[in-house]
Design a protein that fits this description.
The protein is of the alpha+beta class. The protein has helices at residues 14-22, 58-69, 96-104, 132-143, and strands at 45-51, 74-80, 118-121, 125-128, 152-154, 160-163, 173-188, 198-214, 219-222, 232-239, 245-251. Strand 5 and strand 6 form a beta hairpin. It starts with 13 loop residues before the first helix and ends with a strand.
Length: 254
């Protein structure tokens, strides 16, 4: 059985993706069906939290995003950034590429600067992570936006992911693999602004990289190898220029 979840639009077998790529695979997709009230939406909203263990204002935002992670139809990802390490506590989850990903949102979102906590919704808008009402409203609005998403399917062997046809945004698009550990993790902070506190974070990202360009035609992409047994992979189809996320899906651990 194919292990796919929370995908936008229709799912097609990987073999059909390959066959379609031989034919004229650039035709538009049917609109994804709307879920009944109270049901999980057919297309997920990707919630990206940029946070730091040494950031005094981040624990509240962490909790807000953890609550959202439990909602059907939400892919929540936590990126730890390293630019607050100078305050006295080196973030144990941070990597330079996570801060680089955050900075890539600055120009498309028309921000003067980046900081923490910051939540980016579907690559389209940013919300201060501690503002619960604004965060929920943004997720609901993005959930209602969906039309004609490219399809996503994981192959049974778990070594490749297929992406279907669709309209490519101006500037092109790429397929991004985000490896993360599902569920919460806690860290006891010994120094810095959060000294003496236990910081809790959910779906902590361990790596992020591009699998290649998406041209609008069906294609298969190799998934990251050597994953730990507790690691999941979120696949994001993302515009290169304005950074909006066209689709997302998760391959669970194992």
């Amino acid at each position: 059985m194919v292990r796919a979840m929370r995908t936008r639009g229709w799912i097609i077998p990987a073999a059909a993706l390959v066959a379609a790529s031989i034919a004229a695979g650039s035709s538009a997709q049917p609109a994804s069906p709307r879920a009944p009230r109270g049901a999980a939406p057919a297309e997920p909203v990707v919630v990206e939290l940029f946070t730091a263990q040494g950031c005094a204002g981040c624990p509240e935002a962490n909790a807000r995003v953890e609550a959202l992670a439990e909602e059907p139809g939400v892919i929540a990802l936590t990126y730890a950034v390293d630019y607050w390490d100078y305050l006295g506590w080196p973030d144990t989850f941070a990597r330079p590429e996570f801060a680089q990903r955050q900075r890539a949102y600055r120009r498309p979102l028309r921000l003067r600067a980046v900081g923490t906590p910051q939540v980016v919704i579907d690559g389209r808008r940013q919300v201060p992570g501690a503002q619960e009402a604004a965060l929920k409203a943004a997720v609901e609005e993005e959930a209602a936006r969906r039309v004609f998403p490219p399809e996503i399917e994981f192959r049974e062997a778990g070594d490749q992911v297929g992406v279907g046809s669709g309209r490519v945004p101006a500037g092109g698009a790429e397929v991004v693999a985000v490896v993360y550990r599902p569920g919460p993790q806690t860290v006891e902070i010994e120094r810095g602004d959060n000294r003496g506190q236990t910081v809790r974070q959910v779906n902590v990202v361990r790596s992020v990289r591009s699998l290649g360009a998406w041209t609008g035609r069906p294609a298969l992409y190799d998934l990251p190898t050597g994953l730990d047994a507790d690691e999941a992979v979120a696949i994001l189809i993302q515009a290169r220029t304005d950074r909006r996320i066209l689709n997302g899906a998760v391959l669970p651990p194992g």
